[in-house]
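Before relying on records like the one below, remember that each one covers exactly one chain. Contacts with other chains, cofactors or solvent are not represented anywhere in the record.
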Amino acid sequence: MKILFAASEAHPLIKTGGLGDVAGSLPAALERLHQDVRVILPAYRHILERLPEATVVAEFPVPGSPEPVRLRRATLVKDGVPVYLVDVPALFDRAGGPYSDPQGRDWYDNALRFATFCRAVVRVAANHAGLDWAPDVVHCNDWQTGLVPPLLIREPRRPPMVFTIHNLAYQGVFTRDTFQYLGLPPELWSMYALEFYGGFSFIKGGLVFADRLTTVSPTYAREICTPEFGAGLDGVLRGRADRLEGILNGVDYRVWDPGRDTLIPHRYTAHAMQGKQRDKIALQKRMGLTVEPRVPLFGHIGRMVEQKGVDLILDALPALMTEDLQLAILGNGEARFEAAFRTAAERRPGRLGVHIGYDESLAHLVEAGCDAFLMPSRFEPCGLSQLYSLRYGTIPVVRRTGGLADTVVDADGKSIRSGAATGFVFDEPTPDALASGVRRALERYRRPPAWRNLIGNAMRQDFSWRRSAQAYLALYRRI
């Protein structure tokens, strides 16, 4: 099949979150299934610097763009996936990130930037870009591509469309004045189209007009149809529930596997675990923790925002620090949480190590060197860290929500007897529930044969991208 995969970021070219991982891995997995898949991205300055060989293959105007779109083409060397880059220097050739300036503020013209990107995607999807290539299906992702379905559906001959929700909390909501400034078709200003509480929503365009909707886990697909998780769009999603399904994200085991990981000092496998203990010592040294190989070490990696439950970790610290354990925290985010973790680490030298920022090699070392991993998210569309933890034999302690509920099997009596248990799951988003989950993990850790069985169960799990790609390919064929 010919598949056009539209996204606003893709690893390794540019990444701010889980969307970047998916857009960097799913097309490659589809390619390995012998599909003709091509990725289309905005031509951010950072991407053009990484792909200087990207050549112009088409040029065309789109409504509202300050200059004609130059469509460039390159190939991802690692996977051989063709990439189209929508090059509009006035909109994308900037310092800073894909969505915000160097100071972290949203770009003032994000609506114009991504409306222009969507219109360019429509030109390619409708085979009006002079490429002599017409996709059989268009796969759009998150709000930055949300205008593609309502614009493409107007084409008399158009491919079917899939729209994937990676995180419904980010919706691309702008004012009515912006809607008019962008010159969008007037009939799209409707509660049955893009209008959203007096403004308009990019993501609503994808939810209303795509042929099929997916999100990144089965549980999250159910959750977003409820007021608690639907972010004001639960009614729209309930109305399209027969077109909505959850397909779990995958993991690139070429990168995240302790047996081949080049970013950790000591590699290991489920049958030869000695390297994990040495990685634990290396992590303790790097995080300023007391080197005590027998003390259980818990890790956490993530954005320091309430969604990820970092406030629950902070509030649980007094209870956790009464236990014989250590904590290694890696992440950044809201200044109040960063400051609180720094202060907490100063008060607990040798027991709590905190690194503010993101460091890829340190992230791999946390996954390899920890005994257990904390993910107390308030909501989690899919989550990737718990999938990495399973492969690294680092037992997840997670809240039962979204993809965490779908990927971690609680170590209760039944699952332990059947050999299905892979972690510890708690229900309420409270410090006490988190602390209780940690205590359950500690109780099992103190029984080495039982802990080794849990590690074996975890490391046998298969969340490869091949499985996810096969599910998406089946969906494409159905439509």
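The chain has two domains: 2-250+466-478, 274-459.
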